[in-house]
Specification:
The complex is a heterodimer of chains A (about 180) and B (about 210).
Chain A (H helix, E strand, L loop, with lengths): L2 H4 L3 H29 L3 H18 L9 H16 L9 H8 L9 H15 L3 H11 L4 H8 L3 H19 L2
Helix pairs in contact in A: 2-3, 2-4, 2-7, 3-4, 4-7, 7-8, 8-9
Chain B lengths: L1 H13 L9 H4 L10 H22 L3 H9 L3 H28 L6 H40 L1 H12 L3 H47 L3
Helix pairs in contact in B: 3-5, 3-6, 5-6, 6-7, 6-8
Classes of the chains: A mainly alpha (about 180), B mainly alpha (about 210).
Chain lengths: ~180, ~210
């Protein structure tokens, strides 16, 4: 799969590597956020980050720049998490990890709000892969056209789905 | 719920500062690591399968065996079957390659899942093809052994002399069918399990997206 990169002359190849790693370094937050939604411990987070990086690099020669690097990244990162990534069975201390990634500073919120947010994050963690992807894109402030394009469903369906997810979250929060 | 989600959105955007930060040098070695993605495993397994079946075919095709086949008058049929077999295998290799090339992480999730499931379908077809070919070989061999080999003729003669020819053939046929059937089921179960485990989550996700179409 690396043939495209390997066939290039060395200097060009080096340049491509450099450009890719720099762009990924600047946009790594997107990947970290996807990892934090789809994994429950630090090792899996690293694993998924690694896998997404490989998939991004593999697809990079095909990235023409007709969309923003970040937009392209959302799609590859989510597709890797939903479709290609094989979850490891081990679950190391979920609680500990959650408190790091979804850290909520006590002084920033009053008690009820903090509690509310924590419950919301936990509820989202319980959703299925596809639902998580929708919530993720929603939280990232993407509009429905981008959500539908990433997942391959129509805009109407994306809206319907989002409404169902809201209901689901409601049920999880108020059983 | 709307308000809560809006609140969450604000909070989510604030979280950036708590995310891990990797440096250029952390990321650089990552691009050369080996992928452990599902697609890679499906592809590897299908190649191993192909080698397995080809090896079985190759091992069983020694010259002595060829002579035996000729003696049993099923040489031509077997060769024709081999010819068909390899032709179809070549077709499958080509299809595996095409499917594998088509898998693109930049497609929409639904399209990507569809492609991967198509790869799986090709594998399933390949498995069925192997099972059918395997059964055909078994039947022809059995026919050859019983009708034309010395030992086979001896057995048939003894059975006929003892007067229970019908029972004999009935027994031979049912035992062969049972044996072939059990073997086929075992192989089929093995594949079902192998790809079932590998693709379970993907199938569920695909179904979820597909559900939205109606």
């Amino acid at each position: 799969m690396h043939t495209n990169q390997e066939n290039l002359p060395t200097t060009l190849n080096k340049e491509l590597e450099h450009r890719f790693v720099t762009e990924l370094e600047n946009n790594q937050n997107i990947v970290h956020k996807v990892c934090s939604l789809y994994t429950n411990d630090r090792d899996s987070h690293k694993d998924l980050f690694q896998e997404i990086t490989i998939q991004l690099w593999k697809a990079y020669p095909k990235f023409r720049g007709d969309s923003k690097f970040s937009t392209w990244m959302y799609r590859v990162a989510l597709n890797t998490a939903i479709t290609l990534y094989r979850k490891s069975k081990k679950r190391v201390d979920t609680q500990d990890y959650d408190s790091v990634i979804f850290k909520i500073k006590a002084d920033e919120y009053d008690d009820t709000e903090e509690k509310q947010l924590k419950l919301m994050y936990n509820a989202i963690k319980q959703l299925g892969d596809i639902d998580k992807a929708l919530v993720f894109l929603y939280l990232e402030d993407k509009d429905y056209s981008e959500i539908s394009e990433t997942l391959g469903i129509t805009e109407v369906n994306a809206r319907v789905k989002m409404n169902r997810i809201k209901n689901k979250l409601r049920t999880i929060l108020n059983p | 719920m709307m308000d809560e989600l809006e609140l969450l959105k604000k909070d989510w955007q604030k979280k950036e500062e708590h995310l891990p930060k990797l440096s250029y040098d952390d990321i650089y070695p990552m691009i050369w690591k080996k992928s452990s993605s599902m697609v890679k495993w499906i592809f590897y397994i299908s190649i191993i399968e192909f080698i397995f079946w080809a090896a079985i075919n190759f091992v069983s095709s020694d010259p002595q065996y060829m002579q035996e086949l000729k003696a049993m008058h099923i040489y031509n049929v077997m060769m024709a079957l081999n010819f068909v077999n390899y032709g179809i295998i070549l077709y499958f290799i080509f299809k595996f390659y095409l499917n594998y090339k088509k898998i693109s992480v930049t497609d929409s999730s639904r399209k990507l899942m569809k492609t991967i499931l198509k790869v799986k379908r090709t594998v399933t077809q390949y498995v069925w093809f192997n099972l059918i070919i395997f059964a055909t070989y078994m039947i022809i061999s059995l026919y050859g052994v019983l009708i034309f080999s010395d030992e086979g003729r001896e057995i048939v003669k003894t059975a006929t002399e003892q007067g229970n020819e019908m029972t004999f053939w009935f027994l031979v046929i049912s035992v062969s069918i049972l044996f072939t059937g059990v073997l086929l089921v075992v192989i089929w179960l093995f594949y079902k399990l192998l790809y079932g485990i590998l693709l379970k989550r993907l199938k569920e996700n695909y179904r979820e997206l597909k559900k939205l179409e109606v």
